[in-house]
Amino acid sequence: MSVNVSRSATQTLGRSVIALLVASTASFAHAQQTMPIPASTDVSPPTAGIVMTKDYVATVGRMAYLWGWPLINARHRRATFNKSPEPGRLGGILPVAPTGYITMLTDYIAPEERFVTCPNQDVVYGFGFAAVDKDPVIIQVPDFGKRFWVYAFYDARSNSFGGLGKQYGTRPGIYMVVGPNWKGTIPEGITRVFHSPTDLIGMAPRIFMDDTDEDRKAIQPVLDRIMIYPLSKYTGKAQTKDWAKVPTFPAPAQQGEGETKWVDPETFFDELPDVLREVPPLPGEEALYAQMKSVLDAAAKDPAIKEELKQVAVDAEKNLVGPLFQFSNNGIPVRNGWTTAPNGGRFGYDYATRTAVSRSNMYVNRPEETRYFYLDVDGNGGRLNGANHYTVTYKKLPPVNGFWSLTVYNEHHLFEPNSLNRYSLGTKNKNLKYNADGSLTLYVQNESPGPDKESNWIPAPKGDFSLYQRTYWPKAEVLEGKWTPPAAEKVN
């Protein structure tokens, strides 16, 4: 049996099908355009009581460990600070203070410091923590004259906020930081108010000082006028304090050669529920919070899930977070073996970099305040080691409006004692010797390069070590990636 269909009938049928498809597509597109997008508050969390396989718990737990590591880290640092009854120095070295206060040092931080990795000896530090929903803080900014300075403030996620410093054109005055839920009245005499994204904050003034006896003496009067304290203690007038006379508190027992251990994987998931309550999600993090909370709720009811999370934490500490300590795994690679975190202090949803920075060199400034560069290898890719001799030659000095320095850290990212008591060189040093063509060569090695070169020598440990380039108030060339530090060239 055959069926004949005329050409006109076929064309008519084809046009009808096309018209139907077009109409259907248009209707679908219209539906797609008009379908309401649910608000985050309307997105349902995982159903309570759902079956959770071992792999599911491990997957959520591993992500939670990466996400939460910096927040637990900061939580424990804050707890250590808050034990001090008044502003003072822990072990005579570390500036500590009760909640809402800072303590200022009066010189470079001592090389024995173990509270935070990668300290510098370019600035005089101050530090403290506050809870600014409960009691905002008053910040006194004296007249620093031509001296470089910056006050960094960190929220609970270790993101930097605010904007107090020479690069911001900040005028001397009395400033204030308030929390997201504070409802009080701003008192008279406040120059400007900064709003913290979280209740809990860290506070870190950094004041540049030349490495000379003259500047150590000259800086003392201005240091005494740097004050941060609770709003409840504000009198309407600027206060002063002789920071050279603060008390010393006994230091806790050392846990080894490296930085104090701030995160314990054995208790991590016991503490994470408190962090999730204290720190609200960023826009878009609601689903992540819901996943983490559902697993934590299940762990609270099921010992097997709780034990699985503990094992996940132990493994993640070693195999996920552990490798992030190496600078080669931190940020993005640039020229000559260096890496850098272009979003330092402004991490957003970049949990990998946030945790890498927290693990390797916590509490960094924002890029426009300071751009940091990290180096573990020489110009040929070999691991930096004190058995070798290296030179770092700047054909052009780092382009900065503030200052620059090159620092050597041991394998723990801390200072290694040496005969010169010298750990860095840069703007602060007034006796550097320049080459005939105007370039500057620094020598990085364990033994002296000779009396004629010692002014340009940064002593290195005998074992593995790292180099750390700081550019404070960097110029556009640095921020845009047009300038990067020179290679560490192996010369033996």
From TrEMBL:
Domain of life of the organism encoding this protein: Bacteria
Record's Pfam families? DUF1214, DUF1254
The record places domain DUF1214 at 370-475
Keywords recorded for this protein, A-Z: Signal
Identify the InterPro entries for this entry. DUF1214 (IPR010621), DUF1214_C_sf (IPR037049), DUF1254 (IPR010679), DUF1254_sf (IPR037050)
Q: Which residues form the signal peptide?
A: 1-31
Ranges for domain DUF1254: 102-230
Q: What is this protein called?
A: DUF1254 domain-containing protein
- Lineage of the organism: Bacteria, Pseudomonadati, Pseudomonadota, Betaproteobacteria, Burkholderiales
